[in-house]
């Protein structure tokens, strides 16, 4: 457990901190259908270590939705995480049960913010590899996306 905590901390340092908000209210040219996941990517990791995945989720529906779960066979444990400031200058991260996807908005999963934590990856994820990630929503159908691994 102590090892894991240390490793989380080191990873966090590598992930860094971004101050901007994770949700953006969209303007005129925002168009699409349903819930769309774009720009997915994940960090490389050796087998047994940790990776994180990032993407944008846009909710084009007239009603709010929520991301309520993620699944992948590429890791022993797949969790929705958020980074937060534990105290002045000290970043931590924690699991969140769900993420709000407000109507007509884009929620950004990014380094230093919301992310998908892939704990104990079942194979080495090298730059150029891909894996599948399934996202479950409260109101929309589940989606399986292809996630490229890159630096
Ligand atoms: Cu995390």
Query: Whole-Å distance between the termini?
Result: 27 Å
Q: Total number of β-strand segments?
A: 11
Please give the CATH class. Mainly Beta
The Rg value, from CA coordinates, equals 15 Å
The CATH architecture: Sandwich
Number of domains: 1
Low-confidence segments, ≥5 residues, pLDDT <50? 10-19
Which fold name is given in CATH as the topology? Immunoglobulin-like
Which of globular, elongated, flat, extended, rod-shaped describes the shape? Answer: globular
Query: How many strands, what sense, and barrel or not for the largest sheet?
Result: 7 strands, antiparallel
Class by helix and strand content? mainly beta
**Average pLDDT figure:** 89
Q: Please state roughly what percent of the residues sit in beta strands, choosing from under 5%, 5-15%, 15-25%, 25-35%, 35-45% or over 45%.
A: over 45%
List of distinct ligands in this structure: copper (II) ion
Order of helices and strands: HEEEEEEEEEEE
How many distinct helices?
1
Helix content: under 10%
**CATH H level: which superfamily?**
PCu(A)C copper chaperone
Question: What do these coordinates show?
Answer:
The chain is mainly beta and 151 residues long. It has a single domain, classed as Sandwich (Immunoglobulin-like). The chain has one helix and eleven strands; from the N terminus they run αβββββββββββ. Strands 1, 2, 3, 5, 6, 8 and 9 form a seven-stranded antiparallel β-sheet that branches. 24% of the residues are buried. About 7% of the residues have low confidence. The structure holds copper (II) ion. Copper (II) ion binds next to strand 9. The site of copper (II) ion has 5 residues, from strand 9.
């Amino acid at each position: 457990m102590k090892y894991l905590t240390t490793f989380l901390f080191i990873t966090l340092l590598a992930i860094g901190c971004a101050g901007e908000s994770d949700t953006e209210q969209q303007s005129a040219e925002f168009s699409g259908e349903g819930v769309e996941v774009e720009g997915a990517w994940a960090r490389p990791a050796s087998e047994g270590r940790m990776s994180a995945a990032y993407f944008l989720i846009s909710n084009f529906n007239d009603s709010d939705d929520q991301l309520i779960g993620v699944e992948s066979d590429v890791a022993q444990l797949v969790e929705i995480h958020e980074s937060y400031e534990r105290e002045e200058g000290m970043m931590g991260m924690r699991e969140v049960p769900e993420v709000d996807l407000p109507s007509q908005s884009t929620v950004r999963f990014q380094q230093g913010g919301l992310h998908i934590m892939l704990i104990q990856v079942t194979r080495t994820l090298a730059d150029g590899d891909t894996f599948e990630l399934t996202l479950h929503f409260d109101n929309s159908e589940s989606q399986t996306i292809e996630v490229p691994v890159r630096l």
